[in-house]
């Protein structure tokens, strides 16, 4: 059996694993980066990148239609949209990512990895020994709902987020289970590409984790694109039906039925830990890896097992995973050099933002962007809401409709959270993130003068609404 040794073995070669390995190498260590699929990971080939490539043309077309003086007869060309998406994903070819790893001093290893002992990872029979740490960055996988008949459906009828972002044929009818981020984004993308879309939600509105005004705005946007919404609806059974020799899916709910050519499962994700051999180190396969703010996994003697990204269950977003990966890579390198690790909040070795300032964008039309708290959590906090109605938004689009909610710590007069809804509000999010992370007092924000005429003028209106 072949055996190789590295200072660090990183399992999972998506953006999170790449960052962890790069930071470890940058800190003077050697690193192997292991994956059994594509280097570049879920985000690059089946999630963030292709989904936004599918959404962007439809969002641009909708923006044109909100502007007078422009010919509004244009339609999306699905083949061109798919071709542009494939250019971003390189048609699934990860050779450039593998070459990047090599050029960065990282050893790429392709195969299925399992933890088989202390600081030991076995990859298809080859043993990789980690002198310092094993870092798990395997991400997450689709969580399938317990719907009767789902397991019996032929695979070609069922989409997950992977098929929804990589398919190059527009189905005549698409049913979507789940009104969260993936469900709403893909429902709108495929509706704008020409599919008849049916979106089933167990809650009363899309995006249940967001304030009601956000979900309501997205629901209106979806309806405007012809998406048929089924709120407060549990699909009880799905089955295959034959329609004149063509396969289809029948969804039964509340005594009614809907037929579709494809069924998209968008009911959440779970950490991808089931096949890692975690039982060897006393952890539960399939469960999230509990980590401290430096990325070390709790309950493993010696502190050699670390993790970052979706696999920890903390903040399942690519940018937060990369943030955590940079920290854990630096911590492992510092420990190996014998340097002290600074565990104080907001230090280079502590993932403090996971608790206070996690930004996220839902790239629907309208966009939803949020960071920090979305609801007031109790005494000493105040929610301030207002419509985004400034000169900049009026010029941006006729009939511009948007809303902002800010959660303020009234004892310190600093922002704790901001939620924005409206066309192109994602571009306002980083300024909110900086204000929260920097704990900028509102009286100081008063002196951050927004340029006229931009949508950023809403910051001035917010401060005025608060009473400054």
Largest sheet: 7 strands, mixed
| Helix percentage | 25-40%
CATH homology superfamily name of the largest domain: FAD/NAD(P)-binding domain
**End-to-end gap:** 70 Å
Q: Which structural class best describes the helix and strand composition?
A: alpha/beta
Stretches where pLDDT is under 50 for at least 5 consecutive residues are: none
CATH class of the largest domain: Alpha Beta
Examine the secondary-structure arrangement and name the CATH architecture of the largest domain: 3-Layer(bba) Sandwich
% residues in beta strands:
25-35%
- Which fold does the CATH topology of the largest domain refer to? FAD/NAD(P)-binding domain
Number of helices, where a helix is a run of at least 4 consecutive DSSP H or I residues: 14
